[in-house]
Design goal:
Length: 244
C-alpha cells in the first residue's frame, strides 16, 4: 500500500510539473521557448567554431543565458519545492514505518567462494564537452553505452571484429553529431529520436527533423548472424549511418 502511495505521489508531481510548465509558457512567460532555443543555438555555434576565441565566447554566452532562463522559470522553483517536500515526506514515513530487514540464511556448497568478475575498458567515456571517435587502427570491440553533453561521436566498425549475434551501440547526446560507419556485410537496425536536426541512415535521408522518433532496419536483419542495433538520442544535431 505504501509503495502504491509513493507511485501515486510521484505521478502527481510529474503531472503538476507539466501543468505548471504549460501554464508558464502559455500565460506567464511566453518568451521561454525563444530563450531556450537561443541558448541552444549559441552553444551549437560554439561547437562549430571550436578552437577559436569566438567559439569560447558563444559557449559562455549560451551557458549564461541558459542558466538565467532556467533559474527564472516558475517550473524550476516548483521542482525545488517538490524535491524538498519529497524528502520531508520520506523522512516522516521512515520514522513512522521503519524498514525491517529479516535475514534468511541458507547453507550452500559454494559458500565462501567469490564470484569472478571481469572488468573491461570501454571504448568511450561519458563526457560533457568534446569529440570522441574510435581508433584509426585495429581495436577490440566492446558494446557502447554512453551519454554526452556537447560534441561529436564518430564510430568506424571497419577496424574491428564484431562478435556473432547482436552488437549494441547506445548513445545519448544533447548537442552534436553522431556518425557511424558500418561494413557492407553487417545488417543494421537504427532507433533514433531527435528534437532538431537531420538524419541519414544508409540511403534514407531526412532533412531538418523536428521532434521525431523512428526505427529503420535492413531487410536481412532478423535472420543475420552478425548485426548491429543502434540506439541514438539527440536534442540538437545530426545522425549519419553509412556503409564503408
Amino acid at each position: 500500500m505504501l509503495k502504491n502511495a509513493k507511485n501515486d505521489y510521484s505521478g502527481w508531481l510529474v503531472v503538476i510539473g507539466v501543468v505548471v510548465l504549460l501554464l508558464e509558457i502559455l500565460f506567464f512567460n511566453s518568451g521561454l521557448i525563444f530563450s531556450l532555443l537561443f541558448s541552444g543555438g549559441l552553444i551549437y555555434l560554439s561547437r562549430r567554431k571550436s578552437g577559436k576565441k569566438s567559439g569560447k565566447v558563444f559557449f559562455l554566452a549560451g551557458i549564461i543565458f541558459l542558466l538565467i532562463s532556467v533559474f527564472s522559470m516558475m517550473t524550476f522553483k516548483f521542482l525545488l519545492l517538490a524535491i524538498l517536500l519529497h524528502f520531508i515526506i520520506q523522512y516522516s514515513n521512515s520514522k513512522k514505518n521503519p524498514n525491517k530487514i529479516s535475514l534468511d540464511i541458507k547453507e550452500s556448497e559454494q559458500a565462501g567462494q567469490e564470484e569472478t568478475l571481469i572488468k573491461t575498458k570501454p571504448l568511450f567515456e561519458n563526457i560533457f564537452f568534446g569529440q570522441q571517435k574510435t581508433p584509426s587502427g585495429v581495436y577490440e570491440w566492446n558494446d557502447i553505452n554512453i551519454q554526452s553533453g556537447i560534441g561529436d561521436t564518430i564510430i568506424d566498425l571497419s577496424y574491428t571484429v564484431l562478435p556473432k549475434g547482436e552488437t549494441i551501440i547506445f548513445i545519448r547526446n544533447i548537442i552534436g553529431n553522431i556518425q557511424i560507419q558500418v561494413p557492407y556485410e553487417i545488417e543494421v537496425s537504427v532507433h533514433h529520436s531527435c528534437v532538431i536536426g537531420s538524419t541519414t541512415v544508409l540511403d534514407n535521408h531526412q532533412s531538418q527533423v523536428f521532434n521525431q522518433a523512428f526505427h529503420l532496419k535492413t531487410a536481412g536483419y532478423d535472420q543475420a548472424e552478425q548485426k548491429v542495433k543502434i540506439f541514438t538520442s539527440l536534442l540538437v544535431g545530426n545522425l549519419e549511418v553509412s556503409r564503408i
